[in-house]
């Protein structure tokens, strides 16, 4: 299988490495030592550098100032961002902008996309539902009025970067239409109420309550399959973050065990240490292979298979990537903490923040067992088809 990246994708990686080179993952206080959120805002200086490097517009078409690349390019950049725990809404803002590009009106695209690509307008996505356990599309209802406006009611929990975003893309169930629509809700709008929440990483989240929020037709993306594709992109991007974080942690572990001596030898030369590190390397390679398969399916639009001879639906590849990412990132960080000895439990050492981020990513992806069950259902349905 050929995993060679295109010249454009490789250029995006090099640009990302240059931007993230100066980012220190230990530059933010530990969430365990800080009451409330670690900061009120994301890293605006880094956000500006990403915009200057054209990394916020990778997936936008040239007419909106973008490069017209695909989900693989975004995942490559996300992987680099996670190695340094970059505190920016890169995944959420890019995913929301691409959804608008694919399904929004010409008026909406003209007024929003170029500004999003330049980092002037920040977007996020409400994808966690009312409790974090129920489907996001079931948490909000959308009613289409006779005058063409939409009315939204419901609650979405744990919305990332919501206090600093200009717009929130909210999936909402439209009972009359029998499908899910995507509503672009301004953060400051009549009927919109935020309540602060704090993530496992110490980042500021928000509960988004919508009470009879009225939006014009231009602010609602009403297209079959739009939410399913966006959800797949968000999940795949989260897998890319897990991969990058795991690679960063394994690099830290390799450096530490190569310097730490016991009985006059580096502990990296001990078989018990080497075997554990090798197992985690295998985890990362499996995470990488399944990630690129899912990202390719998302970026190529090859979403659904029909009949027994066709490929599995996109959801199958995403489920496999989530299984490996959820389990793998946890194993990598736990092994790293074990091999670091006392440093692994030191909240002043950067590994502590990587552990917190890994746990947040694992929770965001959901339990591997649930994805295995979903994959089994897909395989059974596919075989019968």
From TrEMBL:
Single GO term (MF): oxidoreductase activity
Alphabetized InterPro entries for the sequence:
Acyl-CoA_Oxase/DH_mid-dom_sf (IPR046373), AcylCo_DH-like_C (IPR036250), AcylCo_DH/oxidase_C (IPR009075), AcylCoA_DH/ox_N (IPR013786), AcylCoA_DH/ox_N_sf (IPR037069), AcylCoA_DH/oxidase_NM_dom_sf (IPR009100)
Q: Where is the signal peptide?
A: none
Q: What is its EC number?
A: 1.-.-.-
Q: Which UniProt keywords apply?
A: FAD, Flavoprotein, Oxidoreductase
Residues of the Acyl-CoA dehydrogenase/oxidase N-terminal domain: 7-120
Transmembrane stretches in the record are: none
User: Acyl-CoA dehydrogenase/oxidase C-terminal domain: which residues?
Assistant: 237-371
Question: According to the lineage, what is the superkingdom?
Answer: Bacteria
Q: Which cofactor does it need?
A: FAD
The cross-references to PANTHER family, in alphabetical order and at most eight, read: ACYL-COA DEHYDROGENASE, ACYL-COA DEHYDROGENASE FADE28
Instruction: Name the family.
Output: Belongs to the acyl-CoA dehydrogenase family.
Q: What is this protein called?
A: Acyl-CoA dehydrogenase family protein
What organism is listed for this UniProt entry? Answer: Streptomyces bluensis
Q: Source organism lineage?
A: Bacteria, Bacillati, Actinomycetota, Actinomycetes, Kitasatosporales
């Amino acid at each position: 299988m050929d995993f060679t990246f295109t010249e454009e994708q490789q250029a995006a990686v090099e640009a990302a490495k240059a931007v993230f080179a100066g980012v220190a993952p230990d530059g933010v206080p530990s969430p365990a030592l800080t009451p409330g959120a670690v900061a009120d805002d994301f890293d605006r200086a880094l956000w500006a550098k990403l915009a200057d490097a054209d990394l916020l517009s990778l997936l936008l078409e040239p007419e909106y100032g973008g490069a017209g690349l695909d989900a693989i390019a975004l995942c490559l950049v996300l992987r680099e961002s996670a190695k340094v725990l970059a505190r920016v809404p890169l995944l959420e803002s890019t995913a929301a902008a691409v959804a608008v590009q694919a399904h929004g009106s010409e008026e909406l695209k003209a007024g929003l996309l170029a500004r999003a690509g330049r980092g002037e307008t920040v977007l996020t996505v409400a994808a966690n539902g009312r409790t974090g356990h129920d489907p996001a599309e079931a948490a909000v209802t959308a009613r289409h009025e006779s005058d063409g406006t939409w009315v939204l009611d419901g609650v979405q929990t744990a919305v990332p970067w919501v206090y600093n975003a200009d717009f929130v893309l909210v999936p909402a169930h439209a009972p009359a239409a029998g499908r899910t629509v995507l509503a672009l809700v301004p953060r400051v709008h009549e009927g919109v109420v935020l309540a602060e929440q704090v993530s496992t990483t110490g980042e500021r989240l928000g509960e988004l309550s919508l009470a009879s929020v009225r939006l014009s037709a231009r602010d609602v993306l009403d297209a079959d399959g739009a939410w399913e594709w966006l959800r797949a992109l968000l999940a795949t991007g989260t897998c890319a973050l897990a991969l990058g974080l795991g690679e960063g942690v394994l690099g830290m572990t390799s450096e530490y065990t190569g310097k730490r001596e016991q009985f006059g030898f580096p502990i990296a030369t001990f078989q018990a240490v080497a075997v554990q590190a090798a197992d985690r390397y295998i985890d990362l390679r499996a995470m990488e292979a399944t990630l690129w398969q899912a990202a390719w399916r998302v970026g190529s639009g090859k979403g659904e298979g029909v009949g027994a001879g066709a490929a599995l639906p996109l959801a199958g590849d995403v489920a496999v990537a989530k299984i490996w990412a959820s389990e793998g990132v946890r194993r990598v960080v736990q092994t790293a903490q074990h091999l670091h000895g006392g440093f692994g439990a030191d909240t002043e050492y950067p590994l502590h923040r990587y552990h917190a981020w890994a746990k947040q990513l694992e929770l965001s992806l959901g339990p591997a067992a649930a994805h295995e069950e979903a994959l089994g259902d897909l395989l059974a349905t596919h075989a019968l088809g």
